[in-house]
Amino acid sequence: MPMTKCGGCGKFISPADAARCTKCNEHYHRVCVALTGRGALPSFWQCPECRKNVRRDNKSETPVRSSQAEVQAAAAPLISAESPVLRSTISEESADEGQDIGLGEPAVCARETGVAIDDIVHEQQIDVASQLQAIMGELRNLRIEVLELRKEVRSSGDACNVRMDSIEARLQVLEERHADVPVTATAVEGVVEQLKRDLNERDQELMANDLVIANLPESQAENPVHVVKVIATKLGVQLDDRDIVYAERVGGRHLKATSPTKSAEVRPRAVMVRLARRDLRDAVLDSARQRRGATTEDLGLPGPVGRFYVNERLTKTNQDLFRKTRAAAGIHGWRFVWTKRGRILVRNKPGDQTRRIGSEHDIQEIIGQYTV
């Protein structure tokens, strides 16, 4: 049922318990309009506001808002109905003003006024109780929401803990893998180096029948095969055309400055020769070592007479390694550095053990540190 306000005190009131004016339709507390009991009102009842201008035996009632006795009664709800002070106050005010408190009835007695005060207190207690019940309901709802929120937070925390455990486990696995990476990388590097050495040795095996003749004068009309046959004859080895697979100049042309006053000369390119058999190549190399210092004299080659060199052909890797080995040997005083069948050999002095150089690490370990 909707609540409405009292036309006298301005507080909320239930229409079922209120006194309704038949003229202005305003609702009043029964106490505010000095009504006793809870019985039905007359069908013609009017509030003091509407009755104040109606003449009844030359008596005009005062509006309900100016009734001092009623204001005092509302302001002091805790005063007992049997109190002499309340009884004397109501009697005096009623006697002075000469007003009726009811509907044409005599002034109410102190007991009836006490009953009206009890009604006000009872209504206020009901109002407070209803408000407390509403507050308690809100608190219950709030408690339920807090419990649900705690459950959600707890479930979210558990999910976060599970996820953090998973992340920590994965991180630990990654750290363990990272700890194994250096070892794995070292092993892989070792495998790569071994593969490089194997490929280099295989390439060197493919050059087992090859020779390189350096510092031979070069001319445009020369025949490299004829030049090789002439050099082999001078070294004491007879070669036929069928013993030479091919012979040609390799590399680019380089300028050689002999002195600041003379113009630069073109340095002759080396002649690369492939023989049909390995024994022929070994025979030419042995003869060249025995006749070390042979020159181009009596060969019929153009240009000045000079010394020529016959060596076995090396791969680019072995060439670089041989150059570094000679540099280190020169620094540390090693006297002998040579190649045989694609292998680089060193010896410090006559009578010492011959050592093989297979990598730069071998140079540093056998000969010593060097800078190129």
Automatic annotation (TrEMBL):
Matches recorded under Pfam families: Baculo_FP_2nd (PF25298)
GO molecular function: zinc ion binding
Domain of life of the source: Eukaryota
InterPro entries with a match to the protein in the record: FP_C (IPR057251), Znf_FYVE_PHD (IPR011011), Znf_PHD (IPR001965), Znf_RING/FYVE/PHD (IPR013083)
Domain Zinc finger PHD-type stretches: 5-51
Keyword vocabulary terms for this entry: Metal-binding, Zinc, Zinc-finger
Name of the protein: Zinc finger PHD-type domain-containing protein
Originating organism: Spodoptera exigua
